[in-house]
Write a structure and sequence with these properties.
By secondary structure, the chain is an alpha+beta fold. It has helices spanning 2-18, 144-150, 166-171, and strands at residues 31-35, 40-44, 50-59, 76-85, 91-92, 99-100, 106-111, 119-121, 134-136, 140-142, 159-163.
């Protein structure tokens, strides 16, 4: 019985490795623009046209990310490193509700020098109504349906630019 479990594990793992990457960029040249002030994420074509715009939640605190744990969304231009299927990945918000599938169906990992685990992801039903506000630990969070709509435009190497809003600029006045 134990050997059968091992064989099944090898087969499932092999199938997952051979499956097409959920984040394989199917529409080349697209990039993402996140406006922290407007709480929006836009897909921009290679010609500069805005293809779609969706509401997002950003970091709980205004301003540019300066250190891990400050609950701020970093600003600048970043590169997608990979897209992770997060079905079954749990997170505890420490709100008394226990662990939930907080990231929605996918987590789009961004290369953010100096910081780990920053990205764009979906949400859980308990936090869906917080899209359009400052509510994340630093990531960019979308409604799950909107995340699925942008996914065909996102793959390894996609550029993501995050720009500050007026509140962010006010908080960061000392950096000017």
């Amino acid at each position: 019985m134990e050997s059968m479990k091992k064989i099944l594990l090898v087969i499932v793992t092999s199938l997952l490795l051979l499956a097409p990457d959920a984040g394989a960029q199917k529409i080349p040249g697209a990039r993402l623009l996140v406006d922290k002030g407007a709480f929006t994420l836009s897909v921009i074509s290679d010609k500069g046209d805005t293809l779609m715009t969706y509401p997002v939640a950003t970091g709980e605190n205004a301003g540019r990310k300066r250190k891990s744990g400050d609950c701020k969304t970093p600003e600048g231009t970043f590169t997608v490193t990979w897209v992770q299927n997060t079905k079954g990945v749990l997170y505890d918000y420490h709100d008394g509700k226990g662990k939930v599938e907080a990231y929605g169906p996918y987590f789009i990992h961004l290369e953010t020098p100096g910081f780990k685990a920053i990205g764009i992801h979906g949400t859980c039903p308990e936090r869906d109504d917080r899209i359009g506000t400052r509510d994340s630990k630093g990531c960019i969070r979308l409604h799950n349906a909107d995340l699925l709509k942008i996914l065909p435009y996102v793959g390894k190497g996609t550029k993501v630019t995050v720009i500050p809003g007026p509140d962010d600029l006010e908080v960061d006045a000392d950096l000017r």
